Amino acid sequence: MPNPKDPKKLQEYKEKQRQNALRQGFGKGRKGKSFEELYGETRAKELKKCCSTASRKAAEFLRQNSMLTEWNKKIGKSKVGKPRPHWKGGVSSLVSLITQSVECEVWREEVLRKYNKRCYLCGSKHRVQVHHLHSLSLLIQEQSITKDNWRQFCGVLFDPENGMVLCYKHHNRNNGISLHSVFGRIGITKEHFLLYERMYQKGLLGE
Ligand SMILES: [Zn+2]
Ligand SMILES: [Zn+2]
User: Fold this and answer.
1) Which ligand places an atom closest to the C-alpha of 197?
2) How much is the pLDDT for 187?
3) Ligand 1 centre and the CA of 181: distance in Å?
């Protein structure tokens, strides 16, 4: 990367990057072929639409995520330095407190039963896990939930409608194709899941 203060060099660098990308068939499907060549007009149109929605959603998510990071910093700042008497802990410690509770275990069992202990996407019974569609971090933020009052919010925290069964590969695994490796962990909503489901159905996730 050249000195960004030198506009001419920067321009040259960008042009070189663009040429490289074109040579590698960037912006096209597998093996440098266009989506049309690979899948035909109709399916190509669908795929392109899905890809643009995915990037829009990803940008949206990143915006939300950086907002959340700021908020996390604010709420967790008392972690640094001496603990204060009214210290409430950060969001992640509250999330662990909630997910390790008996109430959460009951909720997990209920959701697992509802989906016959199978991954909603691939139907696998191997290493199935329960996912919060509207993430706990968002619920905590929206409802002002704290470690002292969380039990008053069991209805929203453990709503069976807000649970989804996914196998480890599609939920958590650090493989670049799982829901959390695509969208991250904080600020996930049902929208992300629906988008992920479409990506899966369209074969965009690969194996
Ligand atoms: Zn699966
Ligand atoms: Zn999850």
Assistant:
1) 1
2) 86
3) 14
CB 104 within 8 A of CB 162: no
Residue pair 178/172 in contact (Cβ under 8 Å)? The answer is yes
Positive or negative, the Cα torsion across 158, 163, 167, 173? negative
CB atoms within 10 A of CB 93: 13
Model confidence over 97-129: pLDDT tens digits?
A: 999 999 999 999 999 999 999 999 999 999 999
**pLDDT tens sequence across 143-158:** 999 999 999 999 999 9
Ligand nearest to the CA of 179: 2
Q: How far, in Å, CA of 135 to CA of 114, rounded?
A: 19
What is the three-class DSSP state of 21?
A: helix
Confidence (pTM): 0.59
- Rounded-to-10 torsion of CA 159, 96, 104, 167: 80
